[in-house]
Specification:
The complex is a heterodimer of chains A (985) and B (94). Chain A is of the alpha+beta class and 985 residues long. In chain A, helix 6 (305-313) crosses helix 7 (333-341). Chain A is elongated. The longest helix of chain A has 18 residues, at 452-469. Chain B has 94 residues and is of the alpha+beta class. Helix content of chain B is 20%, strand content 35%. The longest helix of chain B has 10 residues, at 84-93. The mean pLDDT of chain B is 95. Classes of the chains: A alpha+beta (985), B alpha+beta (94). Chain A binds chain B through residues 246-248, 250, 275, 277, 419, 669, 691-692, 719, 723, 726-727, 729-732, 734, 873-875, 877-879, 881-882, and chain B through 1-3, 13, 18, 20, 23, 27-34, 36-38, 40-42, 54, 56, 58, 62-64, 73-74, 81-86.
Chain lengths: 985, 94
């Protein structure tokens, strides 16, 4: 590598020396360097190995389009793979290493792939490993599955750390009138114009410095511009990429807050994910220089012309000693001049024969010449060149660097995110942005303007367009015409190699060659979308920023069409990669989703509860004593409830206040069972169906007054039921005079269950008369007071099958209520019980929950036909008997015992007939528990035909996941106290 | 990001809302036939262009809204409450 740092060039801070490591060796750079410029300054030419062929790769560019210098930054849990060295700012202590190579990028054993190239052409693995007879018969892709892991290892990029990310990320939001993407001359002009017209402006720049491509100019100083922008109150966001445009002028930004700092303050997030809601978007995202496809155009030392200008003027790095520039347009001549002034020996090959360019003759111009083949493997030894009229090697030029400029592609990506297709411009050989009705305006070189004055004019015009569209002004404006070079560009995408087996790269990142494109064409993948997927052209993190147009032009030539007829693939967000950490922001770990706790959460924990998540809620799972396990504990709790009394937090149930003169009519329509005759002071269990006749939810509704009800829903369906009731009242039954209010958070509820529950409550209520069997019979409801003048609602409702009460107080009184109840329950040797015991009790009783009511079950399937009124119509009544729902062989709720009562089983077990154990069987077990009452395991579930069909026949429970199998007895789901004598006691 | 101009809360992100469905369905009466209900709940048009659809401002005022939205561009032409009484309130407050 003949790169070297020059003393009198660049805007780096030479007073601040930074040390960094590359592949475990230490090097020095300066503040203001990127990793790429520091590597070049240290004469490191090979920085990566290519995707498939493991060819040595160098630095191709100086920006986000980089597809060669993809490296791994950091180590251990901060290892970040596939970082573009060209955009990674250098910091003290930065650790970087090459990837996709063993042992390292300089000497990579897998480089042998380069010589096996013909086996690795596009689509090779589909052809090689998939569907090889006889393997395609029956076994499908077994052989592929076997080889896949080896191929994945050999092909590819860096690998993730596999460790939890130690950094924090943040989501942030902002609003503005105008957001300007890009701080080049066009973007800055637009922002200034807008701020002067009193718009609230955000200016976004992905680089650490504002200026855009002006940063590649040797006399550019951005400090004055920065001052001007700041004085106008423009919010400048550097190191921030606008990665996507979304509906309604919403822009997604990724701000890299600490990626350039060696030991960032841990309290600062590493990156911020911004959602900006704007009224207008101006995109001045610039243009990206293309390369040219010819043989060995990927040897380290190949670079775009503009990149070398960047390295020279911004970083003070001269990228070559004997430099050949190959071009088809005017944009390279200033760079050629500057490179030769800086001390390089420069030759320009221009494919055009007939053009005029002013130079000081410090470098040689070879008109009508194109690059043909690079000689060398790890570095450039020489370049074979050809006349552009007849392609063949004509002579060889000794050189150590080849700079390419095959034209410029405006960065139309962000507009493409909005579904706006770019249009091909023949004069400038590039895609230009089309107009859009949305409030988005493209300015500068991203609308194909090549000189600075045009860019500035377009920025001002862009803001005028924005003001007009926002209704603030009505001013005429015009955009300069695309172009701006003295001589027109001559399309040049590929220089065809005469020998077979060329390696002319179209897309460096995925090793897509011109031969691959031709192969895709031969095999019929001629649509650009197919071409992309077959060859992987334009995939991976550069997303074809450099190579896409070359690929398109090759396909156009093969199809004998023009480029616009072949089309262009759609660019989708993100413009550059966005880390998963930034997407998830703070929503990780315990903040992954909201946490809901009941008002007696701490009380429960203080009293020994182990908690379990139910939906978003934390609920008591079990209350172990000393060394009890979960099963010890829940069995003790459930037996205590059956023997004496237990207290269980049921606050997580949904609670809805239903008020208004038509409340009764409303309930009567939404529940399948009758509610019209429910008396004040009584509750009723009800089932709601969906429109299509399937069970939606079950719960109770308590009639508190003539026109007031208190509804409870299941924990999991609470939000859905609330929305459903609102939907019915606001969209379908707008004549009903009913108001529904969610009061789930307002009330804390407990179940007091067991034969001693009334005695416990007697000691807790102000007036024990209100809860006598006469005054509060089964399903009775009362509003009364707990001792201490605490208003409460008590209903005699039983989920456990025992004599039981549900007691509700305002949430603020939750702990007082718990103290009171627990103090008295202890007198009767009662217990606190959790969800596991609650489950055991309800399974014994055959009560269904979400495990059974899974959205596929009808009211008849659940064995609740008696809950379906025949005297009225209700939601779902017309549909619940439709078609398949009335088949005789539907799976019906039953109870299960293991035939051998010593055996256990699990929920999820598939129920089969003997000698026919396969597929989905004839049923399934949905809930299981050890029954303390019965002394063995029991289950609830479904079987085709139900109890009547199978009560005398043993079935088989197949549990292939756990490698278990057992014989099953089918029993009534009501396994304990089927007549319900206990709860009426 | 679709932005919906809730008549009560103002313009908000669509993530505050839940999508309902076709707002043009006339649900049959509860005692209507299985056939009528089948038509109402299973047969849907697949509209290219503007359609009326319901959205619930579930993380806001909890109003059900009729939104006239283009399925092609996401452009929203109009937003109003589903409930006719609320529609009147909104009209009167304009």
């Amino acid at each position: 590598m003949k790169t070297r740092r020059l003393d009198n060039y660049g805007k780096i801070n030479r007073d601040k020396i930074l040390s960094f490591s590359w592949d475990k060796k230490n090097y020095k750079g300066f503040e203001g360097d990127t990793l790429a410029s520091a590597l070049l300054a240290n004469k490191i030419g090979i920085v990566g190995r290519s995707f498939k062929y493991h060819r040595p790769r160098g630095i191709f560019s100086s920006g986000v389009e980089e597809s060669g210098a993809l490296v791994t930054i950091g180590s251990k849990d901060r290892r970040d793979p596939n970082v573009r060295a060209t955009t990674q700012e250098l910091y003290n202590g930065l650790e970087a290493s090459g990837q996709n190579a063993f042992p390292n990028v300089n000497f990579d054993l897998a480089g042998i792939n380069n010589y096996l190239g013909r086996f690795f052409a596009a689509g090779f693995y589909y052809k090689t490993f998939m569907g090889i007879p006889p393997l395609e018969w029956g076994k499908g892709t077994a052989i592929w599955m076997f080889f896949e892991k080896f191929i994945r290892k050999a092909a590819g990029m860096g690998s993730a750390s596999g460790l939890p990310d130690p950094d924090t990320y943040e989501h942030a939001h902002d609003f503005c009138d105008l957001i300007v993407v890009g701080s080049g001359p066009a973007g800055v002009a637009a922002a200034i114009e807008a701020a002067e017209k009193k718009l609230d402006v955000i200016l976004v720049e992905q680089d650490s410095l504002i200026g855009g491509n002006q940063l590649a100019e040797n006399d550019f100083d951005n400090s004055q511009i920065k001052n001007q922008l700041e004085n106008l109150g423009i919010k400048i966001m550097t190191r921030t990429t606008a990665f996507g445009l979304y509906d309604n002028c919403v822009v997604g930004l990724l701000e890299r807050v600490t990626d350039h700092i060696s030991a960032p303050n841990v309290k600062i997030p590493r990156q911020r994910f911004w959602t900006i809601r704007s009224k207008h978007i101006i995109v001045g995202a610039g243009a990206i220089e293309r390369h040219i496809a010819f043989n060995n155009n990927d040897i380290p030392g190949v670079m775009t012309v503009n990149a070398s200008k960047h390295y020279l003027n911004r970083y003070g790095v001269l990228t070559g000693k004997r430099i050949v520039i190959a071009t088809n347009n005017d944009s390279v001549y200033e760079t050629a001049h500057q490179l030769s002034e800086a001390g390089a020996n420069v030759t320009v090959l221009d494919s055009r024969t007939n053009f005029e360019i002013e130079t000081n003759k410090s470098f040689e111009i070879r008109k009508g010449y194109v690059p043909y083949n690079i000689n060398g493997s790890k570095k450039i030894n020489s370049l074979d060149i050809s006349k552009s009229e007849t392609i063949n090697k004509s002579e060889t030029i000794n050189c150590d660097q080849v700079l390419l400029s095959g034209g410029w592609s405006p960065a139309v990506h962000l507009l493409s995110h909005r579904g706006v297709k770019p249009k091909w411009d023949y004069n400038n050989a590039c895609f230009l942005p089309s107009d859009t009705k949305e409030n988005i305006t493209m300015v500068g070189s991203s609308r194909g303007l090549w000189n600075k004055n045009d860019c500035i004019a377009s920025g001002i015009a862009g803001t005028t367009d924005a003001l007009n569209r926002l209704g603030i002004s009505k001013t005429n404006y015009f955009f300069p015409k695309p172009g701006g070079w003295k001589n027109s560009i001559q399309p040049l995408y590929e220089v065809k190699y005469k020998k077979t087996r060329s390696k002319s790269f179209v897309d460096y990142q995925h090793d897509v060659t011109t031969d691959d494109v031709r192969l895709a064409h031969r095999e019929g993948f001629i649509s650009v979308e197919h071409l992309k997927r077959y060859t992987t052209l334009g995939m991976a993190n550069d997303q074809g920023k450099m190579g896409n147009i070359i690929g398109l032009s090759l396909m156009a030539e093969l199809l004998n069409k023009e480029i616009p007829e072949v089309g262009t693939t759609v660019f989708r967000p993100p413009y550059t990669p966005v880390s998963i950490g930034a997407l998830s922001g703070r929503n990780v770990g315990k903040h992954f989703r909201p946490l809901r706790v009941t008002p007696m959460h701490q009380w429960n924990i203080d009293h020994g509860a182990k908690m379990i998540e139910v939906g978003l809620y934390q609920r008591p799972w079990y209350y172990p004593k000393e060394n009890e396990t979960l099963s010890d504990s829940y069995i003790r709790e459930a037996s205590t409830v059956r023997k004496t009394v237990g207290i269980c937090d049921v606050t997580s149930l949904g609670k809805i206040a239903i008020q208004g003169p038509d409340s009764t009519e409303f309930l009567n329509r939404i529940y399948s069972n009758g509610f019209s005759k429910l008396q004040v002071g009584k509750a009723r269990y009800g089932i709601m169906l969906r429109d299509d006749g399937i069970v939606m939810d079950d719960g109770t509704s308590w009639r508190l007054a003539e026109n007031e009800y208190f509804m409870t829903t299941s924990t999991g369906e609470a939000a859905k039921v609330m929305s459903w009731l609102e939907e019915l009242l606001q969209t379908r039954w707008t004549d009903l005079n009913v108001n529904v209010t969610s009061v789930s958070e307002q009330w804390a509820g407990v179940s007091v269950a067991g034969p001693k529950s009334r005695e416990v409550l007697n000691n807790c209520v102000d007036d024990s008369l209100v809860i006598t069997n006469n005054n509060l019979p089964f399903m009775g409801v009362t509003s009364t007071f707990l001792k201490g003048n605490i208003p409460c609602r008590i209903a005699r409702i039983s989920f456990s099958g025992e004599l039981a009460f549900e007691v509700y107080v305002k949430s603020d009184f939750a702990n007082t209520m718990m103290d009171l109840l627990w103090k008295n329950a202890k007198k009767y040797n009662g217990c606190l019980y959790g969800l596991e015991a609650l489950g055991a009790l309800r399974i014994e009783k055959g009560h269904v929950t979400a495990a059974e009511l899974d959205g596929r079950v009808t009211i008849d399937d659940a064995g609740l036909s008696r809950m379906a009124s025949t005297k009225k119509s209700y939601i779902g009544s017309a549909m619940r008997k439709r078609g398949v729902l009335k088949n005789n062989d539907r799976e019906i709720l039953v109870g299960f015992f293991p035939a051998n009562l010593k055996e256990t089983f699990n929920a999820g077990t598939i129920v089969c007939e003997k000698n026919n154990i396969k597929g989905q069987g004839i049923g399934r077990i949905t809930s299981v528990t050890f029954s303390p009452e019965l002394g063995h395991w029991i289950g609830l579930g479904f079987v085709k035909g139900g109890l009547d069909k199978w009560k005398d026949t043993n079935l088989v429970g197949a549990d292939p996941v756990r490698n278990k199998q057992m014989n099953l007895k089918v029993v009534s789901p009501h396994m304990i106290d089927p007549k319900g004598e206990r709860m009426y006691a | 990001m679709i932005r919906i101009n809730c008549p009560y809360c103002g313009e908000r992100d669509h993530s505050e809302f839940s999508y309902g469905g076709d707002a043009t369905i006339n649900y049959p009466s509860l005692d209507a036939s299985e056939k009528e209900w089948t038509e109402a709940i299973f047969f849907r048009k697949n509209i290219k262009g503007y359609q009326f659809e319901t959205w619930h401002h579930s993380n806001g005022c909890r109003m059900w809204l009729v939104v006239e939205r283009s399925t092609v561009t996401h452009e929203i032409k109009s937003v109003k409450p589903c409930h006719p009484n609320l529609q009147k309130v909104v009209e009167n407050n304009k």
